[in-house]
Amino acid sequence: LSQPKSDTQTALKDIFISVKTTAKYHASRIRLIQKTWYALARDETYFFTDGNDKELGRDLGGHLINTNCSTGHSRRALSCKMAVEMDFYMASRKRWFCHLDDDVYLNVPRLLELLQKYNHKQDWYLGKPSLKHPLEVIDRDNPGMKLTFWFATGGAGFCISRSLALKMAPYASGGRFMTTAEQIRLPDDCTIGYIIEHLLKQRLTIINLFHSHLEALWLIKRHQLEKQVTFSYSKYSGKLNVLNVDGFDVEEDPTRLKSVHCLLFPTFRECETLPRH
Ligand code: UDP
Ligand code: MN
């Protein structure tokens, strides 16, 4: 029996990869993405920013969207961007919405492999919390009560199936995401968790293969790197939190993303100059 067309195995083209960025990171973070994992998912990846950048926009094949959201790290600015990301996703009609920050390395084949295990026609919220407990906030509808829910850290990346995204629309599409975010006064990734877990009563599925810089990245073992879906990097008050991986010199690759990319995909042109160990 032939399968109905909609039940074919998920392919890369069925995934909408959404990267949140800001004008001041175009030259550093987006160029680094361009030199690494972007080559594996050019057509699927869209960048959401807050300023015009003709040259970068051209290099990204028009996939640089100026959200016209205000710049800055404010709750408003960031939830404004998430709202635009979700609206673009809905219009794309793809099976999966995957959000990433611009300091994330995406292991593209592993993401595809992961999503192939889940049915996009069912409700799936895949990601990794950075807290060891659910978030607890005051319930404004029931004075004196608290409500708790889990949320996936935006900086680790998370994915939402089309079925679930459709159910989120009343709270998340066409400007309503910002209204929801303002009601609970929480950051964009918490708002996603609030909509899915509290309002829609669905559950976050924890994927341990996602890694934000809120965890100790240097603890990930060398032999486990290939299996992971996302990595990040950070520098807080001079302290680096990066993968412990051989490859390029620290001066050339302070974030270690070029090195991990060449470890995963050694045949890339960017990896020709890699010192062999
Ligand atoms: N970001 C933004 N506007 C800003 C600052 C940051 O859209 O003014 C985005 C940034 O591009 C990234 C995410 O928000 O995708 C998280 O920013 P960052 O990594 O600088 O901070 P973190 O919250 O991880 O410490
Ligand atoms: Mn970050």
UniProtKB/TrEMBL annotation:
The chain holds residues 158 to 434 of 436 of the full protein. It is found in: Endomembrane system; Membrane. The lineage of its organism: Eukaryota, Metazoa, Spiralia, Lophotrochozoa, Mollusca. It comes from Plakobranchus ocellatus. Residues 9-256 form the Fringe-like glycosyltransferase domain. One of its GO terms (molecular function) is glycosyltransferase activity. It is a single-pass membrane protein; Single-pass type II membrane protein. It comes from the Eukaryota. GO terms for cellular component: endomembrane system; membrane. Belongs to the glycosyltransferase 31 family. Keywords: Glycosyltransferase, Membrane, Signal-anchor, Transferase, Transmembrane, Transmembrane helix. This is Beta-1,3-n-acetylglucosaminyltransferase.
